[in-house]
Each structure stands twice: as structure tokens, then as C-alpha cells.
DNA sequence: CTAGTGATTCCCT
DNA sequence: GGGAATCACTAGC
């Protein structure tokens, strides 16, 4: 008997838990994004946890700002930030309202609507590279700051939703240091990925860069 | 395959 | 002012 994929939306209670519980539990879940061209479905294969005010690596570490306000709101909503002057990255807010933790979606496998994703990811040489990395994932799914604050648990005709999918068994979950995180936040092994999955991004340690003259 | 570097702009200090 | 939860491209092994 082969398990069929569960298309039921994840309830808000799924996200209203400690972020270190939610992060590994998101692997294998499905993200459905309604793009202007058509729907794209992504199976989540790699994430990172950011533990709000306790975590020097988190955008919320120094309190609420114009950028990170959504992180302090209710769980199950989307936090999108702009970085490196070019890219967007997408998170799902966890924990109760007032607790600013979130899970960064770092990579995934596009299981439906790849023809729409390819049009925005022209440099991808294989479909497994369409969403291999957080900014590639956001680009493939046409996610930018306009989606910041979107409720991913809402019913009806929404731009973005998270479905139950098929959770990855715990013996196939791996974890290690977070990619690109500098300073004291780098010590936590809060990156989680699916073992041996070809859509998981390569690990890159943080490298301080000097500004060009 | 790995390592090095330019691109480009928002946001906080 | 200058770093940033990154990517794409190049050189070299």
C-alpha cells in the first residue's frame, strides 16, 4: 500500500509550537503558490529555524522593526525579507503571537507546475536546481515583499498555502549548522534537511566580505 | 568539484 | 556608513 499525498491544509496549531519542533516537521510538506501563470507545488526539503529574541542569528533578535514586524505576529503567516540588494527569502512564522520565531524555507522539490517556475529560473540547468537555495526558491515561486504577512493557513482562494503532504520520517532527517549565519548565531545546528535529497542546497559557511573601494 | 568575487539596495546603527 | 539568513559566473584543479 503506497501512502497518498495528503492535500489537507496544515492547521494554525501546527505552527503554534516551539520552532525547533516545527522546523524538522515541515520537511516533506507541500507549499502551493498561485502564480500569475498558474499554481506551483513545492515539496519542502531543507529549512532553518530562527528562534526570535533568543537567537543572535535572527532578524528579530534586536526587537521589532519595519522589516521584521510580521515575525512578532500570529503563527502560520509568511515573513518575506529582501537581502543582498537583489534577493527575497521566505519564512513561516512559528510560536504564539508575540514570540518572533520563524522557519526559513531553504530548498524544495517542485512537484507540480515546474513549467511556470522555469520561466523565472532561466539559469537553472536541471529542474532539481529550480528551488535549490532560499533565494532561488522565492524566485521560482514568484515570492517578494508583496506577500509579506500572508496567512498560509487561510481557507479559500489564497496566494499561498501549506498542505500536509507526507512528513519525512525522523530517521531521514539530518541537521547541522545554519548556512551564511555569522557570529554567535552560527553555533546552533538548526538547519534541517532530507537525507540524500538532490534538491538540498550545498552548505556554505559565512564569509565576511569587505566593501569594494 | 571547490574557492573567490562582483552585483545591487534596503535597513538599522 | 556598511553589513546582509545569496546567486551566478569564472578560474583552476
Descriptive key words:
single chain, 213 residues, mainly beta, 9-stranded antiparallel β-sheet, 4 helices, 11% helix, DNA-binding
Write a concise synopsis of the structure shown.
The protein is mainly β and 213 residues long. It is 11% helix and 29% strand.
* Unreliable segments of 5+ consecutive residues: none
Radius of gyration, in Å, reads 16 Å
Strand count, sense and barrel status of the largest sheet are:
9 strands, antiparallel
Helices, by number, come to: 4
Helix content class: 10-25%
State which percent range the strand residues make up: 25-35%
Distance between the termini: 63 Å
Structural class: mainly beta
Report on the structure:
Helices cover 11% and strands 29% of the residues. 46% of the residues are buried. It is globular, with a radius of gyration of 16 Å. Strands 1, 2, 3, 4, 5, 6, 7, 8 and 9 form a nine-stranded antiparallel sheet that branches. Strand 2 (30-34) and strand 3 (39-51) form a beta hairpin. The mean pLDDT is 94. The chain has four helices and nine strands; from the N terminus they run E-H-H-E-E-E-E-E-H-H-E-E-E. The protein has 213 residues and is mainly β. The protein has helices at residues 12-15, 19-25, 114-118, 134-140, and strands spanning 6-9, 30-34, 39-51, 78-83, 87-94, 101-112, 160-165, 173-176, 191-194. It starts with 5 loop residues before the first strand and ends in a 19-residue tail after the last strand. The longest helix is centred in the first third of the chain and has 7 residues, at 19-25. It binds a DNA duplex (13 and 13 nucleotides) through strand 4, strand 5 and helix 4.
Amino acid at each position: 500500500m503506497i501512502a497518498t499525498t495528503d492535500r489537507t491544509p496544515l492547521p494554525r496549531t501546527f505552527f503554534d509550537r516551539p520552532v525547533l519542533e516545527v522546523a524538522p516537521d515541515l520537511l516533506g510538506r507541500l507549499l502551493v503558490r498561485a502564480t500569475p501563470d498558474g499554481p506551483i507545488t513545492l515539496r519542502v526539503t531543507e529549512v532553518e529555524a530562527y528562534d526570535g529574541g533568543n537567537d543572535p542569528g535572527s532578524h528579530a533578535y534586536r526587537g521589532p522593526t519595519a522589516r521584521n514586524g510580521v515575525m512578532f505576529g500570529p503563527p502560520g503567516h509568511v515573513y518575506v525579507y529582501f537581502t543582498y540588494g537583489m534577493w527575497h527569502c521566505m519564512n513561516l512564522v512559528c510560536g504564539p503571537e508575540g514570540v518572533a520565531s520563524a522557519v526559513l524555507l531553504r530548498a524544495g522539490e517542485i512537484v507540480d507546475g515546474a513549467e511556470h517556475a522555469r520561466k523565472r529560473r532561466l539559469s537553472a540547468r536541471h529542474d532539481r536546481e529550480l528551488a535549490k537555495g532560499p533565494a532561488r526558491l522565492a524566485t521560482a515561486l514568484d515570492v517578494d515583499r508583496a506577500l509579506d504577512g500572508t496567512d498560509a493557513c487561510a481557507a479559500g482562494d489564497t496566494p499561498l498555502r501549506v498542505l500536509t503532504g507526507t512528513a519525512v520520517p525522523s530517521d531521514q532527517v539530518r541537521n547541522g549548522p545554519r548556512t551564511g549565519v555569522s557570529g554567535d548565531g552560527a553555533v546552533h545546528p538548526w538547519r534541517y534537511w532530507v537525507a540524500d535529497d538532490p534538491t538540498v542546497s550545498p552548505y556554505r559557511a559565512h564569509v565576511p566580505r569587505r566593501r569594494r573601494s
